[in-house]
Amino acid sequence: FSQIQHNNFISCCRICVITLAEAHPLLQNGKTITSVNYQISANCSRLQNKVSGKSKRGAQFLTELAPLCRISSSDGEEYTIYSCIRGRLIEVNENILSNPALLQEKPSTEGYIAVVLPKFEESKSVTQGLLTQKEYEEVLLKRLNSSS
Amino acid sequence: MSSLTEKDRPVVQLLMNTSTCPRCILRFCGVGSQELYRRPYKDLMKDLKEFLKNNEEKEDTVCFDVVDPPCKRIRLEHTEEGPDDLNHNGTLQQIPLADDENTATENSAVKICNVCLGILQEFCEADFVKKVCRKVNSADYQFTSFVFSVSLPPQLSVRERAAWLLVKQETGKLGLSLSKDDIVQLKEAYKWIIHPQLSEELGVPADGKGLFEVSVVFAHPETEDECRFLATACPDCFKPAKNKQSVFTRMAVIKALEKIKEEDFLKHFPCPPSSPKNLCVALEIQCNNGAIFVAGRYNKYSRNLPQTPWIIDGERKLESSVEELISEHLMAEFKADSFNFSSSGREDVDVRTLGNGRPFAIELVNPRRIRFTAEEMKGLQQTINNSSDKIQVRDLQLVTRSAIGRMKEGEEEKTKTYSALIWTDKAIQKEDIAFLDDIKELKLDQKTPLRVLHRRPLAVRYRIIHTMKSEYIDEHHFRLHLKTQAGTYIKEFVHGDFGRTKPNIGSLLNRTTDILELDVE
Question: Has residue A123 been placed in a domain?
Answer without folding.
Answer: yes
